[in-house]
């Protein structure tokens, strides 16, 4: 998979810009707050269907403007793809190869990315929200219908919680039935995804850490089950049993919205016992595992986005990273190109200043 | 700063109450009205008033109509053993337009949505149960929307309907639109179409 071109109009700091990417390595070079991450964010919108850092989509529209447009041209399995997005103050419009799409499910699944950001480190230390976000965004990239199921589930949850706050028990089953049907799908897909991811991550951690410890990643959910049917049946039963407890709490206490992802090194929780260096290696392994997962599933190399993380790595990790990307198209941001970094680089360099991009070489 | 003259402001506010009309459109409409001929404005205002005055709710199916019973309920040729349950009168008219259904309807006036304070009591459900109890109904077709609220409403009615023996309850199928290309149907629609497939 290769991105050829990205056009942005009124997107954050960019009034208008058009970038033509090189086939392998692309470096976005610039001082802080000049708009480097914004480029990666724009690309990620086509893979995730939403921004990872904007709370409301209208924040993406350039100050003083009323709409923003993004367009990306890329190759996928030898096919030319053209995706466009128009962000309005209320909602957005999406097109794939010139055809308007009504929902995100028809839009996602075209572009695949692995996004490394400095915030990844917090994913281990902070609460489960960040880890669920990792699961949701990345599963939404290629598991068809996942985003739709998630939305449906959240809508059902809001409805059920309203009933709980009104202390109404009678109508609960009609909501629980739908919740467990959709919830069962989400639970089983997450279970499957994490198992496959974990397999790759363990192997990769071993390589990165020179066989020191064993990393294991596991799925933590309050719902018992092993496949879609058992998850569905158990969730329905657990929802029924927790009805009184949930009414006291005022919200639904069981279901995939409470899931978590756990990391262990030699059986000890990473969040509590690992050093900063170990946490970094765990996160790196997780992202590489995602890379391998996508490569295996799609038979293609995903686009790799590296936000400020490359220059933080020591030389051996930098080397490992570049070697293990198998020539995947990579777009990285950095504030300075140190000599040792430069020596390794063989690609296109874009200089970014005040929302203007110039090609250096 | 120069304000809108009070009479225009009043009209703008009225237009803004309509669904899908924001402040900008409301202003445009209000100013358009200033250019209309007097009798046109009269007609417009009359149309609004008369619509409200002349409309009623059908005492049998709860549809919005200009008479009660409505043309469907009043038609002696309709099959009175089948009732198709819909969310609103527009859904009923959509099914009528296809001219292939000759049973009766029941209009709920919405779907269950606890978030919006709409429970079974806010819908025309009691009327439906009375009809089932008092008339010779053998089939109930649940044609509520395929949203989570529409599904919940259908399930709720299906549960209530279990109390009546001899009553068959069906749910309309959701799937690929006729003439629709499989390639362009989204995955959710495809999945549903597969789930609700039938032998031929
Ligand atoms: N909606 C917007 N309109 C205009 N500028 C914006 C908007 N949102 C963010 N910015 C600007 O974009 C810059 C941040 O860009 P970013 O890509 O995060 O920088 P970098 O990654 O190079 O540090 C800031 O200068 C910020 O003020
Ligand atoms: Mg940045
Ligand atoms: Zn009627």
Keywords:
heterodimer; A: 361 residues; alpha/beta; Rossmann fold; six-stranded antiparallel sheet; six-stranded mixed sheet; B: 200 residues; Helicase, Ruva Protein, domain 3; Dna Topoisomerase Vi A Subunit, Chain: A, domain 2; four-stranded parallel sheet; two-stranded antiparallel ribbon; binds adenosine-5'-diphosphate; binds magnesium ion; binds zinc ion
Question: How would you describe this protein?
Answer:
The complex is a heterodimer of chains A (361) and B (200). Chain A has a domain at 1-111 and 300-361: P-loop containing nucleotide triphosphate hydrolases (Rossmann fold, 3-Layer(aba) Sandwich). In chain A, 43% of the residues lie in helices and 25% in strands. Chain A has 11 helices and 15 strands. In chain A, the strands form 3 sheets. Chain A has a 6-stranded antiparallel β-sheet with strand order 2-1-4-5-6-7, covered by helices on one side. In chain A, strands 8-12-13-3-14-15 form a 6-stranded mixed β-sheet, with helices on both faces. The two termini of chain A are 23 Å apart. Chain B is an alpha/beta fold. Among the domains of chain B are: 1-36, Helicase, Ruva Protein, domain 3 (Orthogonal Bundle); 78-173, Dna Topoisomerase Vi A Subunit, Chain: A, domain 2 (3-Layer(aba) Sandwich), CATH 3.40.1360. Chain B contains 7 helices and 6 strands. In chain B, the strands form 2 sheets. A 4-stranded parallel β-sheet of chain B has the order 4-3-5-6. In chain B, strands 1-2 form a two-stranded antiparallel sheet. The longest helix of chain B is centred in the first third of the chain and has 17 residues, at 38-54. Chain B starts with 5 loop residues before the first helix and ends in a 5-residue tail after the last helix. Chains A and B meet through α4 and α5 of A and α6 and α7 of B. The structure holds adenosine-5'-diphosphate (ADP), magnesium ion (MG) and zinc ion. Zinc ion binds next to loops of chain B.
């Amino acid at each position: 998979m290769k991105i050829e071109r990205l056009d942005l109009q009124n997107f954050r700091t960019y009034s208008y810009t058009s970038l033509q990417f090189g086939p392998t390595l692309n470096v976005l070079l610039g001082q802080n707050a000049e708009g480097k991450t914004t480029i990666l964010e724009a690309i990620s919108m086509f893979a995730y269907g939403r921004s990872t850092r904007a709370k409301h989509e209208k924040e993406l529209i350039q100050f003083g403007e009323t709409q923003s447009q993004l367009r990306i041209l890329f190759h996928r399995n030898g096919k030319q793809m053209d995706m466009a997005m128009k962000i309005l103050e209320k909602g957005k419009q999406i097109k794939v190869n010139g055809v308007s799409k009504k929902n995100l499910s028809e839009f996602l699944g075209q572009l695949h990315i692995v996004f490394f950001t400095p915030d990844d480190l917090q994913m281990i230390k902070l609460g489960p929200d960040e880890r669920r976000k990792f699961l949701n965004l990345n599963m939404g990239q290629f598991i068809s219908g996942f985003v739709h199921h998630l939305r449906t589930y959240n809508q059902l949850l809001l409805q059920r919680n309203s009933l709980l706050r009104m202390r109404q028990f009678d109508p609960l089953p009609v909501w629980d039935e739908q919740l467990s049907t959709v919830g069962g799908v989400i639970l089983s897909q997450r279970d499957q995804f994490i198992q496959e991811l974990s397999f790759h991550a363990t192997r990769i951690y071993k390589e990165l850490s020179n066989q020191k410890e064993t990393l294991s990643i596991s799925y933590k959910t309050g719902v018992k089950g092993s496949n879609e049917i058992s998850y569905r049946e158990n969730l329905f039963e657990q929802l029924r049993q927790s009805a009184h407890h949930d009414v006291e709490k005022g919200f639904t206490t069981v279901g995939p919205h409470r899931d978590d992802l756990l990391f262990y090194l030699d059986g000890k929780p990473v969040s509590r016992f690992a050093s900063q260096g170990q946490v970094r290696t765990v996160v790196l392994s997780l992202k590489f595992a995602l890379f391998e997962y996508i490569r295996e599933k799609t038979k293609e190399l995903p686009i790799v986005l590296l936000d400020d993380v490359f220059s933080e790595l020591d030389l051996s990790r930098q080397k490992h990273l570049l070697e293990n990307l198998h020539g995947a198209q990579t777009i990285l941001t950095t504030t300075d190109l140190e000599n040792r970094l430069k020596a390794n680089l063989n690609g296109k360099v874009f200089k970014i200043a005040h929302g203007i991009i110039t090609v250096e070489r | 700063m120069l304000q809108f003259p009070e009479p225009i402001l009043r009209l703008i506010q009225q237009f803004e109450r309509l669904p899908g009309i924001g402040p900008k459109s409301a202003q445009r409409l209000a100013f358009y009205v200033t250019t209309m001929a007097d009798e046109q404005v009269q007609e417009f205002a009359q149309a609004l008033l008369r619509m409200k005055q002349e409309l009623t709710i059908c005492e049998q199916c709860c549809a919005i109509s200009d008479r009660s019973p409505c043309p469907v309920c009043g038609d002696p040729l309709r099959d009175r053993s089948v009732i198709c349950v819909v969310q609103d009168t527009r859904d009923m008219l959509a099914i009528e337009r296809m001219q292939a259904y000759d049973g009766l309807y029941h209009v709920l006036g919405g779907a269950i949505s606890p978030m919006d304070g709409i429970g079974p009591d806010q819908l025309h459900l009691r009327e439906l149960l009375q009809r089932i109890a008092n008339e010779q109904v053998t089939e109930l077709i649940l044609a509520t929307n395929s949203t989570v609220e529409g599904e919940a409403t259908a399930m709720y009615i299906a549960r209530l309907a279990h109390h009546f023996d001899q009553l068959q309850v069906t749910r309309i199928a959701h799937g690929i639109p006729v003439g629709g290309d499989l390639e362009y149907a989204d995955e959710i629609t495809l999945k549903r179409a597969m789930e609700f497939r039938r032998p031929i």
